[in-house]
Amino acid sequence: MSEALTQLEADIRADLARIAHPGAAWLDPQTGPDGKPALDVLIIGAGQSGIAIGFGLLRSRVSNILLIDKAEEGKEGPWLSYARMPTLRSPKDYTGPDLDIPSLTYQSWHEARFGKASWQELGLIAREHWAEYLLWLRRTVGLPVRNACELLEIAPAAGGLLAARVKRAGGDETLYARKIVLATGQEGMGDWMIPQQLAHLPASSVATVADDIDFESLRGKRVAVIGAGASAFDNAATALEAGAAEVHLLCRRAQIQVIQPYRWLTFRGFLRHLSDLDDAWRWRFMRKILEMREGFPQPTYDRCARHANFILHEGAPVEAARKTGKGVELQTPRGAITADFVICGTGIDMDFADRGELANFAGNIATWADRYQPPEDQRNDRLGRFPYLADDYSFTERVPGTTPWISDIHLFAIASTMSFGPSGSSINAMTTAVPKLVHGLTRGLFRADIARHWASLSAYDVPQAVVTRPARKMGETL
Fold it and tell me: Is residue 204 helix, strand or coil?
């Protein structure tokens, strides 16, 4: 480790010590059905969101926590797997999992790692460096993380606890917790979509942008990418750079979307208070933003456009697809396009029942369609399938009283977007969204223990001072 990084970590310890008030522990661990202390909070996912949530809880003196992630250490999140852009798209000075502690920012780490001059020259953050920074951050703040541990199922347990069945190399085990946070990023409440028109194609011919694609095998092949968001362009560029013969990018819009609504909404008022609005306003804002879809920056487009064998098709939604002797034929309003391989960059659909860990209660998770009926001209079935969350990011019941325990399961993922705006999938929202979630978690833990806190106050008899009174002589008056 460099001397500068060693000094930075010493500065961080000093910073955290200065802002440690109040330092009193305030939670007593409950005992699980296995006779062992149950966790106060179990966080599913140790990527950037999970790290920020865990750090926020530690600062709130909730230390009986555990983060689990199905990936190996250092491979959490998309950064070293299906993220196929050279750099992050967020400006380098956005703060996030540091929770506004200056010495924990990416800038501080980068300057210690590469020098201040490197930071000044830096345009955007390399995704490999971001992954390295996140791993350093989690170790520096001392988060307890268990890797190669996958959540299989959540169920209610005795004593108001939740039982999380997880899979590890040694087999299945059950973890008991008072609260569970699903910090599961993109896939938390559904899966990546393959459009219905392509669903019948063999797996050897079609993939999503999140799949493990062997791009080297596409050398000399014809590739079609469905979708025109940033991830679609990233995959098109990766195929071009791998030597694909031609890459067709199919955009359903008449003109490609070049406006990035996530740049507009990056201000404290919106990020902090969208969730305080009534359902009509929340729906209006998020429908506008999500129907625009996330735009792409100039370098992302240029990465594709510099290749002569890149063809952009606007106004070309896929109407039908069939496998022929010549490849996969995609029918669009602008004619047929034939490819050897198709990559779908069409986003994620909410499908709770498709998530094994949610199987015990998927049918009773309330959605936006259950809670709010927008005007006819504002309807959107896809957005209506998003979960309708309480003000602490917890699930709400479709039929009250059927699965009351799901109020102790909190969702911090892309599926939180309709209720809270950018939160569980955006760096720019972390410094407002994570404290709101942590506040909700600690509020729930405090309220659940209110009888114990009252008893503790009633029994509190620690004197603040010792009062000495001079002895008086017989007959002496004041």
Answer: coil
